[in-house]
Design goal:
Elements lengths: L1 E6 L5 H18 L15 E7 L2 E8 L1 E3 L2 E2 L1
Antiparallel strand pairs: 1-2, 2-3, 4-5
């Protein structure tokens, strides 16, 4: 299991593809919440994910709200 923390510019094409795939599976399909996933905010987020045996098993994007708060 590998924990990865990257800025948008550091992501590989495969990593970005897997992240978008996971977000669509959870929010659009499972939660039936259609929305525009490519929302222009990925560039400002910190992307945290776990890779295990070549698969992305967990993913989180974090946004800095101010110097002391993230969401």
């Amino acid at each position: 299991m590998t924990l990865n923390i990257k800025h948008f510019s550091e992501l590989t094409t495969d990593e970005l593809y897997r992240m978008i795939q996971a977000r669509i599976a959870v929010f659009v399909v499972e939660q039936n919440c259609p929305y525009q996933d490519i929302d222009g905010t990925d560039e400002g987020a910190l992307h945290i994910f776990i890779r295990e045996d070549g698969s992305m098993t967990a993913y989180l994007r974090v946004f800095e709200k101010d110097a002391a708060t993230a969401h």
